[in-house]
Amino acid sequence: MAGSKYAYVRNFELPDPLLPGTFLVCRLDGHSFHRFSDEHGFSKPNDERALRVMDAAAQSVMEEYKDILLSFGESDEFSFLLRKSTQLYNRRHAKILTTLTSYFTSCYVFHWPKHFPDTPLRYPPSFDGRIVQYPSAREVRDYFAWRQVDTHINNLYNTTFWALVQQGGQSTTQAHATLKGTFSKQKHEILFSRFGINYNALPEQFKKGSVLVREIVQGKRDKKDSSRDTMAISLVHCDIIGDAFWDARPHLLV
Ligand code: ATP
Ligand code: ATP
Ligand code: MG
Ligand code: MG
Ligand code: MG
Ligand code: MG
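^ thats the input. predicted complex w/ magnesium ion below
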């Protein structure tokens, strides 16, 4: 098709390919969710309804984009791992990033009323996003380990902080001061001795975050009636730092 005399402006749109053969990790994070969580009455430190909305949005994203093999969520963020051979949108950076971010955001809004039936959205939430390219499985594993360690550190801090405020009667300023410079061991001690909370007994969902993983479901294997393997997405709250998770799922890192 012949273009108009204006069509030359198209040449100012530059290609933005992601490197071939690299693992792509896309991380989304809620914009100003400190405020969003206040305005929508999230319970502290962990509102389970809010976590369920995030998990549901991520699940929808994985149903739509089959090259996402794994995702990990905590608080207001989710990270998505795309297989290194993905040809999604010809590996165009902006196209992948903007469609994933916008699809996640609209799924968040779409799923909201199921989990917050009595809390209408007061304003439209938004998410920022980035894509990082990793050359090998080592960095991918370390990336997810980094996010899960972060989940643990934040959750220990937040759990202790909110115990000091909600049960200890401290102001938020006082609670910050109490925790300033404390080590992990001291936070466990404050929780246990002052509030009778055994941190290790808290739900895995809060300590480990949410892992959505595409699992291979084996088809029937008997001679008469065999069927193909299929894939299913499962939600677990397990360790992804050690080897066990990855050794059981070699398909994630090929
Ligand atoms: P930014 O726009 O820079 O990301 P932010 O306010 O979103 O700013 P984050 O560091 O992303 O800051 O932290 C997200 C905040 O959202 C948490 O500190 C917490 O206050 C709140 N939040 C998110 N999810 C939950 C949840 N499930 N339960 C309670 N609070 C939550
Ligand atoms: P891509 O994902 O590549 O953008 P697309 O299907 O969105 O694919 P576009 O070139 O963006 O393709 O075209 C948008 C299409 O959406 C139009 O061709 C038309 O079919 C439909 N569309 C958009 N807005 C309207 C509208 N207001 N009324 C009727 N059809 C519309
Ligand atoms: Mg941020
Ligand atoms: Mg945020
Ligand atoms: Mg965040
Ligand atoms: Mg279009």
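Residues 14-149+205-253 form a domain with the Alpha-Beta Plaits fold (CATH 3.30.70.3000).
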